[in-house]
Design brief:
With 371 residues, this protein is an alpha+beta fold. It has two domains: 286 residues, Rhopdopsin 7-helix transmembrane proteins (Up-down Bundle); 80 residues. The chain is 67% helix and 9% strand. The protein has nine helices and six strands. A six-stranded mixed beta sheet has the order 1-6-5-2-3-4. Helix 6 runs antiparallel to helix 8. Belongs to the nematode receptor-like protein sre family. One of its GO terms (cellular component) is membrane.
Length: 371
């Protein structure tokens, strides 16, 4: 009897140690992830004029939800250690709804890219604000069902299956977007069949899709992974020391297997977030680059074909463009034909004569036209 008691005490102590280790691991990881998300959110806000407003809103809301969730999770963990039970009840009522909000926001983000892919030729002028009704209606209802517990066990089953369904729908939309972009690229790549504007807008759509959909795809994988382990093995990120003491090595093996795989995915997650932040910071660097003077008498200083530039109009709007043709004539000192996603953003000699000089940015430098 004494021997069994000692073994049980050692098991409880071992499980308590593992729980403490995992607590510090979650604390450290949360700090890193929170920093990534807020940096990404700030970069997206600064560069909001370089993207379609609906993309900024849909993708920004998704990033914001992922920034707030680990923030409240971290607050919950700290208050738990301080044994502030009453305050923690309030924190939990905010924390868990944010998790459920992520699902419709995820689907809404992929719907935005689908709309941009289907209507790529005129999407820059579209303002599909009606689509915001999807998260506006679904999120409150979904959150109420998730935390209301009015259906008992049925609520948990509903949430699990809805997350599966939401992630599945997101995967389907992602596949359609990818296949459509490949098809459009092949079609528009045929010489003489389409204008420069259509090809440029498709390129912009693909670039924006690469920014957002890689993040959404990895997010779906992690969500499905969590649901699978929780549904099959009843394992989640929270270490249960009581279950550890009851089940021993079996539970520990499952828990560490779960954490190792999840930590690997978290590293990939951090890599994707870093790539997104670097991309947005590069845009930031280009936007505030110091201008480089271009003399029209010196052809070596002219921008070259296919250089990407950022044009800042008189109204303050910033438009990312790509130079597709530059030509000069005896009657005009400078005249460039730009493939523009906005008709009123076309640069011509007349525009330059009315508002000289015009500043723009090429990759990391910029130029100012001197007449």
């Amino acid at each position: 009897m004494m021997k069994k008691t000692i073994i049980l005490q050692n098991a409880i102590a071992f499980c308590a140690t593992l729980a403490t280790i995992q607590l510090w691991e979650v604390f450290t990881a949360s700090i890193m992830i929170i920093a990534y998300f807020y940096i990404l959110l700030i970069c997206l806000f600064i560069q909001r004029r370089a993207f379609h407003p609906f993309f900024v809103i849909s993708f920004g809301l998704l990033i914001l939800s992922y920034a707030l969730y680990p923030t409240f999770q971290l607050i919950f963990m700290i208050f738990t250690q301080l044994k502030w039970t009453q305050i923690n009840m309030v924190v939990q009522q905010i924390w868990w709804p944010i998790y459920y909000i992520m699902v419709p926001l995820n689907v809404n983000c992929t719907l935005e890219r689908l709309l941009a892919t289907v209507y790529y030729a005129k999407y820059e002028r579209m303002r599909p604000w009606a689509l915001l009704l999807i998260p506006g209606i679904v999120v409150p209802v979904y959150t109420f069902l998730a935390i209301g517990r009015i259906f008992g066990v049925a609520t948990t089953a509903f949430i699990n299956w809805s997350v599966y369904g939401g992630s599945g729908l997101s995967f389907v939309i992602l596949s359609i977007v990818a296949a459509t972009n490949v098809y459009r690229t092949l079609q528009l790549g045929k010489a003489g069949t389409n204008g420069l504007t259509a090809r440029f807008q498709l390129a912009e759509n693909i670039r924006t899709a690469q920014i957002s959909l890689s993040y959404v795809l990895l997010d779906n994988i992690i969500k499905l992974y969590d649901i699978f382990w929780n549904g099959v093995f009843t394992i989640n990120a929270l270490f249960d020391r009581n279950r550890c003491a009851r089940e021993g090595g079996g539970y520990v093996a499952l828990q560490f297997g779960y954490l190792i795989i999840r930590f690997t995915m978290a590293l990939n997650y951090a890599l994707v977030l870093t790539m997104l932040a670097v991309f947005l910071m590069c845009l930031l660097e280009r936007t505030f680059a110091k201008p480089m003077l271009i003399d029209t008498s010196d052809e070596s200083s002219y921008p070259s074909y296919s250089d990407e530039i950022i044009i800042e109009g008189s109204d303050g709007d910033v438009v990312v463009e790509k130079v597709t043709a530059i030509f000069y004539s005896d009657s005009l000192e400078y005249d460039s034909a730009l493939d523009s996603s906005f008709d009123d953003a076309m640069i011509t000699a007349e525009v330059i004569e009315e508002e000289p000089p015009m500043a723009a940015s090429i990759v990391k430098d910029s130029f100012v036209v001197i007449n």
